[in-house]
Amino acid sequence: MQKSLCFGDIPYYISRHNFERTDFVKWLEECSVWINNKEKASFDDIFQYWETLVLQHQNTKYKSENDRLKMKHQLLCVLQDSIAFKDELNEWIKYILSELRIKDLLIDSDIIPDEWENLKSLLEEVAEDKYSDFDTNKFSKIGKPDNQITISTRHSSKGLEFEVVIMMGMEERHFPGWWTDNDPEALRESNRICFVCVSRAKRVCILMHSNYYNEMDYRYNEIRCKRYYPSRYLLQLKQKYDRHP
User: Fold this and answer.
1) Burial label, 235 (beta-carbon count in 10 A; 0-12, 13-18, 19+)
2) What count of Cα atoms within 13 Å lies in the side-chain half-sphere of residue 92?
3) CB 3.0–4.6 Å: which of 84, 86, 88, 128 could bond 136 by disulfide?
4) Verdict on whether the full-model pTM lies above 0.85
């Protein structure tokens, strides 16, 4: 697919990350929007998430108005000062996490227990060479592709949202995979992933399957044409939503 898009000179974006776009990561993205263009993001919304997160981890429902103003001012100062690092994504994220003492807040969190590990994955990834020219402006657009096709694995689609989603490989034995036959837990995970993928679409979700695949038969060391049938997911969705049987 990537080669076809290149050949047709069609802009595309490959969504492939080792971290999840959790609510906290999305909050970081919103912070990066704000430091680049204050008209495109609301500081009040950014603060509301931060205040809720802190209060949850301090096991309290509210602070005094004076404490809220102090917290709001602290966050504002951190974001304002972070503008100095906006052209170096890795340094900007490290600065935000350090100044807001995110590790202390999340490392033993029972509310979002895997968040600190996810943030470590984020830091490790943005330190790689492929992110060397990545600034906060590009980071703010992760999951918000502008006038381009996004290529994503099913697992990497979590947290993304599109007007139109096209799901390929909707054949039984492929999705769900053959390995789920005698593994109820694997099948439940496959069911969950299917729901995640379909729910990425805001308007239209197109499900595609192939009747035949050319596959290598290693017993005879030759390529053979193998028959496949529509996935149970495709049939279930078609039965429920197809208005033109």
Assistant:
1) middle
2) 27
3) 86
4) no
